[in-house]
Design a protein that fits this description.
Bound molecules: S-adenosyl-L-homocysteine, iron/sulfur cluster, FE3-S4 cluster
Distance between the termini: 57 Å
Shape: globular
CATH class of the largest domain: Alpha Beta
Strand content: 15-25%
Radius of gyration: 24 Å
Helix content: 25-40%
Number of domains: 4
Largest sheet: 6 strands, parallel
Oligomer: single chain
Number of strands: 21
CATH superfamily of the largest domain: Methylthiotransferase, N-terminal domain
Length: about 475
């Protein structure tokens, strides 16, 4: 009989900051480390390895890293000497931007790695733990912030665990747009699209493991232009048509898009592709052409309006979301008014808004006429008030509608499930646990601050590829 080698499970804690792509990357880092015996843990307290997957997008996001590292240092030092030292790694966009500086400021950090090199984590862990002087807290940590020629997606193992009813799938990465306020082109590098076949394979694996909704990710996802099996370039719309053929995949979403890359084929897909959900996050940043030009957004407010009008012609009920920056250098009261006017015209279902934050190395950081913080605060409050009203109005408009809801997780109360409407709203419903992962028709009957409430109706859909589920008695029908 063969004798198996039993690996002692090691605890891995990953803390993720920033965007969905970081969430995806964190899951992939867990996959890469699984063969080494690392098992995900919910706390850093007794973890053998802690990874901070960081975000550099605004000053506040970056600052969090050093305060969190201070806490980890205390945990590392409090670890019994009989145990192996805790391995601390800093990954993601702060790691890419600051590299060596992190090892200088926090010498107890063992590994600093960028978003493009995490497939090499096993070698980095081996290097970091091998040198005994590292264990004494001396010596340099391992630094790997290269942009390797051979890309990580070709080296990733499969998912080490099911990714859930709704899962992310990165299809595109990096950005060549160079908006003057933004660090992403520097931290994530040049735009890159994964080949179609590789994406289809990953999507099929996800669906086989129970995923019913896939959100395609990219910093500029609608700039996707991956090669298909015949060596021809496919756009995002073509990719989604291919994905829609996967039996068992019920819903497709994508984020984040740039207004410049909303081509006709993609807009048409919103009208024709049933599995594509009627929700789109399309950041505009500002409603002033002067500010948009200074931001190097390469679109005007009118172009944005035209795109929205075309999307609404294709899919009249499409719910729209956006990002806004207030207080960009030189933004006048009139510029800000133009942003408010755009918001009033478009009517968003939800949105994110931020005060402009100076980022080192970006052109806007050294522009004259930086806006004082109190003005930024005032503008942000005014913008958020109207965006909140619009979100409330949108949510209220769905009350009384019966919509398909995909149940993603258990709710806080017994017999409660939480799912998403086609418009990406969270909906809380009294429903039997067996509906988890299934689509069911729900009548929206209440509208709370951040979610909706609904009841199951008679017509219960089935998760694709699964038997239809009948509704249990007393399930709120
Ligand atoms: N690729 C996406 C944006 C990614 S960053 C796009 O092109 O829209 C997410 C959001 O953070 C941006 O849309 C922007 O609103 C905000 N953001 C980026 N840099 C910022 C900065 N320096 N200050 C404030 N907000 C910023
Ligand atoms: Fe940043 Fe602009 Fe690229 Fe978006 S398009 S990631 S805002 S540079
Ligand atoms: Fe932040 Fe990097 Fe994403 S800067 S928003 S984690 S691409």
């Amino acid at each position: 009989m063969a004798i198996g080698i039993t690996r002692v499970a090691k605890k891995l804690f990953i803390k993720t900051y920033g965007c969905q792509m970081n969430i995806y990357d964190s899951a992939r880092m867990a996959d890469v480390l699984a063969p080494l015996g690392y098992v995900s843990s919910g706390t850093p307290d007794d973890a053998d390895m802690v990874i901070l997957n960081t975000c550099h997008i605004r000053e506040k996001a970056s600052e969090k890293v050093y305060s969190e590292l201070g806490r980890l240092r205390r945990l590392k030092e409090a670890r019994p000497t009989s145990a192996d030292p805790m391995v601390i790694a800093v990954a993601g966009c702060v790691a890419q931007a600051e590299g060596e500086e992190i090892l200088r400021r926090a010498p107890y950090v063992d590994i600093v790695l960028g978003p493009q090199t995490y497939h090499r984590l096993p070698e980095m862990v081996a290097l970091a733990t091998r040198a005994s002087d590292r264990r004494n807290g001396r010596g340099r940590g391992v630094l790997d912030t290269e942009f390797p020629v051979s890309n990580k997606f070709d080296h990733l193992p499969g998912e080490s665990a099911p990714q859930g009813v709704s899962a992310f799938l990165s299809v595109q990465e990096g950005c060549d747009k160079f908006c003057t306020f933004c660090v992403v082109p520097y931290t994530r590098g040049a735009e890159f699209s994964r080949p179609v076949a590789q994406i289809l394979e990953e999507a099929k694996r996800l669906v086989d493991q129970g995923t019913r909704e896939i959100t395609l990710l990219g910093q500029n996802v609608n700039a996707y232009h991956g090669l298909d099996e015949g060596g021809c370039e496919a756009g995002l719309a073509q990719l989604m048509w291919r994905l829609s053929e996967i039996e068992g995949l019920a819903r497709i979403r994508y984020t984040t898009s740039h207004p410049r890359d909303m081509d006709e084929e993609l807009i048409d897909a919103h009208g024709e592709l049933d599995k594509l959900m009627p929700y789109l996050h399309l950041p505009v940043q500002s409603g002033s052409d002067r500010v948009l030009a200074a931001m190097n957004r390469r679109h005007t407010a009118a172009v944005y309006h035209d795109t929205i009008a075309a999307l609404r012609r294709a899919r009249p009920d499409i719910a729209l979301s956006s990002d806004f920056i207030v207080g960009f250098p030189g933004e006048s009261d009139a510029d800000f008014e133009a942003t408010l006017a755009l918001v009033r015209d478009v009517r968003f279902a939800q949105a994110y808004s931020f005060k402009y934050s100076v980022r080192p190395g970006t052109p806007a950081g050294t522009m004259e006429d930086q806006i004082p913080d109190p003005v930024k605060n005032e503008r942000l409050a005014a913008l958020q008030e109207i965006l909140q009203q619009q979100q409330n109005a949108f949510n209220a408009s769905t009350v009384g509608q019966t919509v398909p809801v995909l149940f993603e997780r258990a709710g806080r109360h017994a017999d409660q499930l939480v799912g998403r409407s086609p418009y990406n709203q969270a909906v809380h419903v009294t429903a039997p646990g067996k509906l988890l992962g299934a689509l069911a028709m729900v009548r929206i009957d209440s509208c709370l601050a951040h979610s909706l409430g609904g009841v199951l109706t008679d017509s219960v859909g089935s998760a694709f590829g699964r038997p239809a589920v009948e509704v249990a008695e007393g399930a709120g029908v």
